Amino acid sequence: MTIFARTLPEDHPYVITVHVNVAYFLSEVGEPAEALPLLRKALATREKLLDKDHPDVAGSCNNLAACLMALGDHDGALPLFRRALRISEKTLGPDHATTALCYNNVAVCLQRRGESSDALPLYRKALAIREKASQAHPAIANACNGLGYCLDALGKHEEARVLYHRALRIYRDGMSASLPEAVTRRPKTSPSALEAGAVPSGSSLLAGVACRRRDGPLSDGRLGLRPRPSPAPNPSHA
Asked: Would you give the DSSP letter of residue 236?
């Protein structure tokens, strides 16, 4: 970052991208407070240089909001997530994968504010968008997991359980497809407890597994959020 800063103006796109990448790294290693000023600067610079509805402005809004969320500032994060969603719907379209990610981010923020009922339709929307593109992509599993976690919080345990199992099947199938054929061949046995649906209603087990997955960062390190598993029934997944 120092080399770029010495040779390029501070509002150069390369410099801003490096700021975002450094901030992303700081957030990943548990230092969101140090990432915050870099993300504020990135957003301010993009607002100055780009159209107010440019996708990169939305990306910076998402980044800054995710950092604020990590610092516990849900009230500060929510308007930024909503702004990113409005821009994405306008510039990329209502069925774009990034729009689905933005719906998910707003939903997660609402749920962490204790507004699960308001989050629910946004989780459903995120899943519906992703289902239009594929039925077995990891992003579908992420969306199923998010919706399931919200339903779980609202006491809709059976509907949540179905979604958790769907997410687990997608994750499992994806991992099996990446293994050598000799490894994936095994004798057929009776279904495991999970396959047979023996997970108790409301269990956070599958949520704890799936919530560790994330949509990959976009080109400039934009952050996607995933719901936080409930610490009450299973603290080890918090």
From this structure: G
